[in-house]
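Hello again, I could really use a second opinion on something today. I've dropped the whole record in just underneath, so have a look.
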Amino acid sequence: MNHHTLRPVPALVLCALLWSTGGFLIKLVDWNPLAIAGVRSLIGAVTICAVLRRFPSFYVRQKSGAVDREATFNLWAGAVCYALTLLLFVAATKMTTAANAVLLQYTNPVWVILFGPILLNEKNRKSDYLAVAGVMAGMLLFFSGGLSGGSFLGNMLAVLSGITDGFMSMFMRRQKNGHPEDSFTLSHFITLAVSLPFWFVSPHLSAQSVLCLFLLGIFQIGIPSILYAMGISRVRALSAGLISMLEPLMNPVWVLLAVHEVPSGTTIAGGMIILGSIVLRAAVQGKSVE
């Protein structure tokens, strides 16, 4: 698949929409969380290789043929950060509420704000800081009752997943002239390897669980990995993070469609603040978030 098949912003929007099905589907799988992460990654890796029609590169070479150490480091740093994100998020979703897991993971723009200028040499603008502040305020309102539930350990794992997710986006962005999709594929192999011992201590899978695992692997993690790679190559890491805020925004929509749970007024208000912050940032900067 060519990186220019879709424009970057639509690719990231579609990625976020597909990612948003994760919390709901993970809850439907009655299995060990690390085993879920591993099987999801196995199916996701197969999906990526099938769509791209190639296996990932394990290192990057310069035009001269020598191994490019910096580019190879970025390749593996992105893979390790995303593998940690996958493992931490699935565990957090099982140990705390889905709302908590998503909310706390999406503190990732804070880390991009702090470390992006160092790792990416991409200067933050005043509108970036205002947008992140608005998004965080909207998310707190959006999930105003969520953090009272769930376990402390689950919430802490979700916080850690936000940190690793932020660094993942920065190391993916550092590969803007390369193939960041290879980092995603390698991350799925890493996740699979870590999860293998947990496959054999988990209960028997029901038909529903098997179906949900395939949906997670193909549509929630496999195809979105390719879409994110398309987008992150051509937008700033912070822009990608803000667009991805559509993921926590859409989670209650899937719940509404599946179990007819009507969102509260504060949830709707928080969602409007999130969308408004992203749109206002684009308007203030006088161009699209690309």
Notes: The chain is about 75% helix and 0% strand.
